[in-house]
Design brief:
Order of helices and strands: HHHHHHHHHH
Largest sheet: none
CATH class of the largest domain: Mainly Alpha
Strand content: under 5%
Number of helices: 10
Number of domains: 2
Distance between the termini: 77 Å
Number of strands: 0
Shape: elongated
CATH architecture of the largest domain: Orthogonal Bundle
Radius of gyration: 20 Å
CATH topology of the largest domain: Tetracycline Repressor, domain 2
Structural class: mainly alpha
């Protein structure tokens, strides 16, 4: 006798991913549990472990990190560094489409799937956005220098939550880190 609602692995995985996206977006990584996600997907928690092996793997598989970066090349050139920092602060502090970036950064330190997801975000979104600002011969070097500033700030502010980093105002961060990033851009571009 055939079941009325046959469940196949593809449909089950799709329900798990949909529930996980909703849970991580609304509850955040820390508060979204495997049990909660299983309840939302109307399945037993063991099914999540069967398909994804851990909460970390599920997070990496389900999270869509769409930074929706502006075209930095269209920015007022002398203020491009500040625009980059302001944009990234917004993406780190407001989950929305950008996803839970602090959780991804924490996960990237401890889990290979998180590391790969963060590298993918950098190579497919961040680097191409920065490359439009930088002359071709300097792109790889300058983009990674900029990334060190942004990831270092994010790690200290959102992961370690170092009080001195957390207490910095957005204006202080945009001005100071923006100036450092601007110096990389200007050095790569040569004299104006």
């Amino acid at each position: 006798m055939k079941r009325k609602n046959p469940r196949n692995s593809g449909a089950t995985k799709a329900r798990i991913l949909e529930a996980a996206r909703e849970a991580f977006a609304t509850l955040g990584y820390e508060r979204a549990t495997v049990r909660t996600i299983a309840e939302m997907a109307d399945i037993h928690p063991s099914m999540i472990m069967r398909y994804y092996t851990s909460k970390e793997t599920l997070f990496a598989a389900s999270s869509q990190f769409s930074l929706q970066l502006p075209d930095f090349a269209k920015a007022d050139r002398p203020n491009a560094g500040e625009l980059i920092v302001h944009t990234f602060l917004d993406r780190w502090e407001n989950r929305g489409a950008a996803g839970d970036l602090p959780a991804l950064l924490r996960l990237s330190v401890t889990h290979p799937d998180g590391r790969e997801k963060l590298i993918t975000v950098y190579t497919q979104q961040v680097k191409p956005a920065l490359d439009r600002l930088i002359p071709p011969k300097q792109r790889a070097r300058v983009a990674i220098l900029i990334a060190t500033q942004l990831v270092g700030l994010a790690f200290l502010r959102y992961v370690l939550q170092l009080p001195a980093a957390v207490e910095l105002t957005e204006e202080e961060i945009v001005k100071s880190i923006g100036n450092a990033i601007q110096s990389y851009i200007d050095a790569a571009s040569g004299p104006r």
